[in-house]
Amino acid sequence: MPAQQSKTCTIVIFGASGDLTSRKLLPALFSLYLKGRLPEQFNIVGYTRRDWNDDTLRQLMKKSIENHMNFNDVADAWKQFVPHLHHVHGSLTEAEDYQHLRSALSEFEDGSWNRLYYLAVPPRFFTEIVSGLSQNGMTDQNGVWCRIVIEKPFGDDLASARILNQALHTHLDESQIYRIDHYLGKETVQNVLVFRFANTIFEPIWNRNYIDHVQITVAEEVGVGHRAGFYDDVGVIKDMFQNHLMQLLTLVAMEPPATFQADALRNEKIKVLNAIHQPSDMDLGRYLIRGQYRGYRDEEKVAPDSETPTYAAIRFDIENWRWQGVPFFLRSGKKLAAKTTEIIIHFKRPPHVMFPLPAGYKITPNILALCIQPDEGIHLRFDAKVPDTTAEMRPVDMEFHYADDFGECAIPEAYERLLLDALIGDAALFTRGDEIEKAWELIDPFITLPQGKNAPELELYEPGSWGPATADALLGKVGRKWLRGCAEHGDFSSSSDC
Ligand code: BG6
After folding, report:
1. What's the pLDDT tens digit per position in 447-484?
2. Pocket around ligand 1: residues whose beta carbon is below 6 Å from it?
3. Which atom of ligand 1 sits closest to the CA of residue 227?
4. Ligand 1 mean position, distance from CA 37 (Å)
5. What spacing in Å lies between the alpha carbon of 31 and ligand 1's midpoint?
6. For the chain, what is the radius of gyration of the CA atoms?
7. Residues marked as catalytic
8. Predicted confidence (pLDDT) per residue in 326-369, tens digit
9. Is the Cβ–Cβ distance between 277 and 318 less than 8 Å?
């Protein structure tokens, strides 16, 4: 990886006074520095409207590093790192501030340097910033490169995502745009591809002949907290499904790309999205469950009559040769019983059972659980004969845990990988413009919802539960139930509350 690193780069963070910079970006950049993965010559510039100077920014960033690691262990490295950190004062909306930024940057740079602009700001500023940079010649690539990293949400629906893409494309080439979905930076998410395509034994059975259905769960224990004001305008479907869950689905369902090049990968992902069945308005109720945790409307900055869903479960059907008849059930919510992100591949039962089983006993299907977080790993469940019985059997698990094989601290933060990839120009783990538009097209109907009797109700659920009971019915009516494959060693218990 470092072999592809450029010699120079100035990283400009718009929105550097925000939470994301101190919690994620700066620690990730410092960690890359410690690993020797930043360019030989680099500057990190925090651009804010605050009345700060370099020292203020450096002190704040030191605090954030102290929160992430034992500072004494890295104090010497920090001393060498800190002179690379600068603050530039300016607004996002005033044309002359961009001129000021341009001249400030040229003072830090010795000649023409590559530039990475990170837009950690609310989406309403994306276009303005890019046009401000472009009008001042700051996105030109004469002998250097210039890339822009854009945080989510990318648009608010299909129409606004299209407008945003068009606006960006008037100033930038698609190859300069890095749209972040931090889930793609997670090691365990990248490992879905390695698991599927670097091993021979799984791919031949990864299809409708062997797989009964797929479940993807992204559950959080926390509520909306201090983000309530933002969240109430967004809700779980925009916040989690349009991006993270759809990305997980495409990685599970895609065909093997010929190479690990960004476009080869993204071409396969968009084919999956194109093959997803779009239910009609009449049918939406069969595909969508919406819930809101009890007490959500009492959160500060939430409307007392808010109809914003904090939980959703959606069924997707992929209409292609590989996946015909294999439903994908996706669910996500806040204030659920546990924090877990997992993908469950639920295989079919054997077609014939030769064993004399007790009445009513059915062979347990094989279940493969890809544990994205926490306790990252993979569990495979199969039936085994109970010793000293004629043919009694019981499901057992074969487990792989990252912590056991690679050590407790082996997994870097998603932002570290994504920042490195943006610096070396590998866009494979970033979302392309057409992909993001297609995801909105699929998700929009679940947000706008038809009026009248076909609109799925918003159901209240208890904090600490697994969501509304109807979410169980979504699977129950087609003979399946939600599972937790990564809960504890050997626990593939149902997460249904019923
Ligand atoms: C963000 C959402 O994109 O992902 C948050 O806006 C959510 O609402 C978060 O809490 C979850 O990320 P992770 O990495 O903790 O699963």
Report:
1. 998 776 667 899 999 999 999 999 999 999 999 999 99
2. 220, 239, 341
3. 8
4. 26
5. 21
6. 24
7. 244
8. 999 999 999 999 999 999 999 999 988 888 887 777 888 999 99
9. yes
